[in-house]
Amino acid sequence: METIHRPRVDAIRALISEFLQSQLDEKLDELKEGDTKRAKLRLKFEYATWIDDAANRSVQIQAVTHSLKPIHPSAKGTNVYTAPSQLPDHRVVGTHCLCDTFEGDVAGNAAALDVYKFLKLSLDGRSLLDLAVAGDADLAAALTDDAEQARSWLDAFAGVAKQRGRPASHTLAKQFYWLTGEDAHDDTGFHLLAPLYATSLAHRVYQTVQLDRFGDEAKAAWEARKAGRFHPRPVREYGELAVQKLGGTKPLNISQLNSERLGRNYLLASLPPVWKTVAVQPVHGVDSVFQRYGRRREVVRLVRMLRDFLASDPAPNIRTRTRIDTLVADLLDELLHLAAEVRSLAPGWSQDPACRLSAAERLWLDPGAGTEEGAAAVPITDEAAERIAAGFANWLNARLRKPLPMGDPEYQHWRKLALEQIEDDLREAHDE
Amino acid sequence: MSDTDLTRQPEEPSNPAWLVLPRLRVQNANAISSPMTWGFPAITAFLGLMTALERRLGRGAGITLDGVGVVCHGFEPQVSAGGYTRSFALTRNPVGHDGSTSAIVEEGRAHLELTLVFQARVASPLLDAAARSDLVHRVAEQVAGMRVAGGSVLPHLADTPGGPHRRPVPELVLTPADEEEARKAFRRIARRCLPGFALVSRHDLLEARHAELLAATPGASRLDAWLDLSRWNHRAVLHPRPDGAAPPAPEAAQPADWQQDARPGWIVPIPVGFAALAPLHEPGTVAGARDPHVPFRFVESVYSIGQWLSPHRLRAPTELFWFAERPDEQGLYLCTNDYALHLARRSNASPDVQPVSSDQ
Question: Which InterPro entries does the UniProt record give (chain A) (predicted)?
Fold first, then answer.
């Protein structure tokens, strides 16, 4: 016989009674004084009656942390309820990161959701559902004095968090193979993986993003930024955030938490950089490719970042140097990209009279020009790479000079960073 | 060298090679890469394609594909423009057999242009250039009829970037045994991928940020670090005083500059595989499984940080490739890439190129 702690039993009873009273009051408010349904309602919300009814209805719902419905609303199969702390602590991000503070979700008949509300009542940080799953003797005693009856109700409630029946997937669910063996031709070397929707995890992400977008503190920080005033909270922006609607007009058909999110789920962007929107044009009408390069949006952005960083007078340490070199490397990436774009044009474009580029730049950007019929191949020289690198260093210094004193040491540094990249690029352009 | 000869004498392919499928144009690929990310398809989709391709070619083809590198040249998401958030075009599924409307399932789509580079091993008959050329033709044919991340492969058009004079031709290149030669051969492939961006793993940044957050807030999780790296953080910085004295304690009303944290390159949150939610079910024990002959497992997506970077930045071929790990004892099914490992080695050799792990 398990020991029963009377004060705890009383506390649970009080919790449940309070819940029933508030549910009843809510329902009564919807009815007129003197309506005959009021008496019926009061009967329904009598302690033992309601619990018996709830225990019966508990089979209609299931507590989940991972659900199938968001994958496809018509899919039927196994859902999973696992406390995040029970999952292995992987080195990547997943539901296990939620630890002890997580919101369980519930799927099933919306008409039985009040049963889940009841099971989420918590005492000392543990929900009635947790207690039911653990077979808590105090909860049993709080439900009824009839031990046998209590046990059967407890089992019914615990069943909400348990997997029911044989595990099942569905044709509308996602299922795919993962090669676990060495040989892709061996049919036995695979596992079939069926991903479920991590609804508790999605809920945490949703709440975080909501707070960062619409929370009072976040709004205050936004306003402070607009006014150029200090605020201790950072402003957080989720670029290219997408909203995925689950369940259409009936988000409750998916799950309780989905309904609380109004069926909206946030998807973070993992977009690749996209560098071109217009067709590539020959570099005509400018004296140097840097005139075109400097107008690229990403280049403008990077130069601004570099200039702001240098203007903030950062401490002269390795961190600062790395930051600067990283930004310059990004600028060089853009330059090599531009070169690759221009090289995709038909060779010989640099021989047009409209092209005013230097010989070194022509050699670099139009390597095929010299191979046209009748023309002699132009030999590449180290000088060409050096000229282009020097051109880059000059251009960058000019761009930064406005607010900052830029001199020879900076020039030499930019030149050094550029030279190796351009030498490689030039050589390989001619290797083809 | 014909295929039948190869089937008659099966041999474990052991000669390292690279298979390059340049400039694939894919229409309507799946742009919802996981329950929490959208944009470029998940790397698992390309590893799946790799396995499917190897199986289609058959054992007799004498080629094994071990890893895949993905370079994106173009990306056109089919989403709403304008406003703060993006939304996807809705699709109405066909009505049910009783005429009732089916549920709406939102699908995100994107048109892609990409180059796939596979780390391969080939059997000795493929040391012959003509045999490789035959195989490459077969590969191109197969891929044209396959789904790539749920999208269909379009034939190459003359007016696509790259131009008619540079028609992209698939290649099967033997990896030179000499290290320097191998490096050169790879650099040539990488340069052919320009302009474009390769996706590599920056799991190291997630770990570093997690450690930083933990130092400031005990109990901070990898999820917190992941979200922190997935957004732009702007912080208020007080104006320095003209006399050079330290600024006073920050107060809400003081004038300040707002600065955006710099990021170490173009980093993005990505799904990197799956974690088991339950033990492995024996073959045939799960109702509704599409294959009763293999073990079955319920899983969830897991996430890390990736970086898009220009392929010419890659110093070694292994920095490009993603591999599918066998499930570990904790039931983790992971896609891995070694770029960060190489980066760390490089920075040990020369502190000048240490990665910037944090801006705080």
Answer: CRISPR-assoc_prot_Csy1 (IPR013397)
Token duo for residue A99: 């630890």
Amino acid at site A42: R
Residue with tokens 């939620």: A98
What are the tokens at A249? Answer: 């007009």
Closest to B296 measured CA to CA, from B279, B280, B275: B280
A87 reaches B (C-beta below 8 A) = yes
pLDDT value for A73:
77
The Cα B199–Cα B308 span in angstroms is: 5
Instruction: Find the CB nearest A268 among B230, B255, B299.
Output: B230
What is the spatial distance between Cα B106 and Cα B110, in angstroms, rounded to a whole number? 13
Strand partners, B54: none
DSSP B311: G
Interchain contact, A318 vs B354, CB within 8 Å:
yes
Chain A, residues 92-131, CB within 8 A of chain B, namely 92-99
From residue A293, give the alpha-carbon distance in Å to each of A283, B58, B78, B333. Answer: 10, 48, 29, 43
Q: Tell me the pLDDT tens digit for each residue of A112-128.
A: 888 998 998 988 888 89
CB neighbourhood size of A226 (10 A) = 10
3-state secondary structure of B198: strand
Q: Are A322 and A392 in contact (CB under 8 A)?
A: no
A206 and A266 Cβ atoms separated by less than 8 Å: yes
Q: Say which range, A270-279, A283-292, A296-305, B295-304, has the weakest mean pLDDT.
A: A270-279
Test mutation, B85, B207, B335, chain A, max A CBs within 10 A: B85
Phi-psi region at B4: left, alpha or beta (left = phi > 0; alpha = psi -120 to 50):
alpha
Backbone CA torsion sign across A134, A140, A141, A146: negative
Cβ–Cβ under 8 Å, residues A121 and A127: yes
Would you call A249 helix, strand, or coil by DSSP? coil
Alpha helix stretches (DSSP H) within B129-175 = 129-144
For residue range A196-247, list pLDDT tens digits in order: 999 999 999 999 999 999 999 999 999 989 988 888 899 999 988 998 888 8
What whole-number distance in Å separates Cα of residue B47 and Cα of residue B64? 13
Look at residue A201 and give its three-state secondary structure: helix
Q: Do A168 and B51 touch (CB under 8 A)?
A: no
Q: B354 vs A241: CB contact, 8 Å cut-off?
A: no
For residue B287, the distance in angstroms to the closest alpha carbon of chain A comes to 4
Please answer whether residues B38 and B127 qualify as being in contact, where contact means their C-beta atoms are separated by less than 8 angstroms: no
Cis link prior to B195 (omega < 30° from 0)? yes
Rounded to whole angstroms, the Cα distance separating B148 from B196 reads 18
What the block records as the tokens of A151 is 């046990």
Strand partners, A266: A243
DSSP A371: G
Q: Write the DSSP symbol of residue A121.
A: -
- Phi then psi for residue B262, to 5 deg, are -80, 155
Interface check for A170 against chain B (CB to CB < 8 A): the answer is yes
Which candidate, B260, B267, B261, places its Cα nearest to that of B204? B267
| Tokens, residue B43 | 């790397």
CA atoms within 13 A on the CB side of A43: 5
Cα–Cα distance between A235 and B56 in angstroms, integer? Answer: 51
ipTM rounded to 2 decimals:
0.88
List the beta bridge partners of residue B323.
Answer: B336
CB contact under 8 A, B298 and A167: yes
Cβ distance A137 to A154 under 8 Å?
A: no
B306 with A270: Cβ contact below 8 A: yes
Q: What's the CA gap between A420 and B350, in Å, rounded?
A: 16
Query: What is the amino acid identity at position A109?
Result: N
- Give me B12's structure tokens: 């474990």
Other CB atoms within a 10 A radius of the CB of residue B106 amount to 19
User: Given CA atoms A219, A223, A228, A231 in this order, what sign does their dihedral have?
Assistant: negative
